[in-house]
Amino acid sequence: MSLDFLDSMPAAVGRQRDLLRRLLELIGPDPAWRWFELSCSLSRGAGDELSDVDCGAGVVDWPTTVATVDGLVRELGPVIDVLHQPFGTDATHTFVQYADGLQLSLVVMPAEARPGLPPPSVALLDKDGRLATPWRPSAYRSSAAQVREWTFLGWIALADLAKYLQRGSLWEARVKLEDARAELFRLWVAGHDVDYPAFGLTSILETAGLELPSGIESTVVGLNPAALRTAARHCATLLRAHGVELAMGDYVDDPTRCN
């Protein structure tokens, strides 16, 4: 177990650090828990007093050990509520809201499922040396197929927006505008060769020196039909500029669809 990183965490994230210490004290002596990693803002040294604790762990005897997670997280402090949900095909995600405001997001998987340590995670426990090897997951960079998919999804959202405007369903139209913008953020990250483009806006804000797409503020509007049409056209312009060329774009850009 390596506690050097915890010792270096600033006072601003003292509560998160203390929770991690308590968690490691519980799982460290347990032979079922083989590795533990800290990720996201805390592992990058960019956390603050509001940061949740994003982490992952590898275990043996997976079904049996997973059944103990609920009791484990409740030992860390007074709990408001706990959510357990599947994470992929062979992992679980547990989210805990503690009474003091701390939030824990813990993914537990079979220990052998992880081939190494992804950036920017930090290994806090590694009994078998599994995290000693750097590893870049598929989500670290985008593929051409993903860029095409994100572009396509953006155009689908704008096509649906036009449909909802014609029906007079402004709330649904605005949701689709948000969906289109989310895909645009992913494309923007992918185009700048930035880590984890699937995280979209989060990856933009966490990358020093990377600004938002120019003109993106024109896609933020309320529930006015004319404003939504204008925002959709701005979003289409940005999507065409930063996505890949698709026939779907010509279809959505047809003036008969958004007028």
Describe the structure.
By secondary structure, the protein is α+β, with helices and mostly antiparallel strands. The chain is 44% helix and 16% strand. It contains 11 helices and 6 strands. The chain has helices spanning 4-8, 14-27, 40-44, 62-66, 69-74, 144-167, 170-191, 201-205, 225-242, 247-252, 255-258, and strands at 33-38, 53-59, 79-86, 92-98, 103-110, 122-126. The protein has a 6-stranded mixed β-sheet with strand order 3-4-5-2-1-6. A hairpin with a 4-residue loop joins strand 4 (92-98) and strand 5 (103-110). Helix 6 (144-167) packs antiparallel against helix 7 (170-191) and helix 7 runs parallel beside helix 9 (225-242). The longest helix is centred in the middle third of the chain and has 24 residues, at 144-167. It is elongated and about 60 Å long. The protein starts with a helix and ends with a helix. 31% of the residues are buried. The mean pLDDT is 93.
Please state how the strands of the largest beta sheet are arranged side by side.
3-4-5-2-1-6
Major sheet, described briefly? Answer: 6 strands, mixed
Number of helices: 11
**What gap, in angstroms, lies between the N and C termini?**
62 Å
Arithmetic mean of pLDDT = 93
**Rg calc:** 22 Å
Spell the H/E element sequence: HHEHEHHEEEEHHHHHH
Low-confidence stretches: none
What would you say about this model in short?
The protein contains eleven helices and six strands. It is α+β, with helices and mostly antiparallel strands.
Topology record:
Layout: H1 4-8, H2 14-27, E1 33-38, H3 40-44, E2 53-59, H4 62-66, H5 69-74, E3 79-86, E4 92-98, E5 103-110, E6 122-126, H6 144-167, H7 170-191, H8 201-205, H9 225-242, H10 247-252, H11 255-258
Parallel strand pairs: 2-5
Antiparallel strand pairs: 1-2, 1-6, 3-4, 4-5
Helix pairs in contact: 6-7, 6-9, 7-9
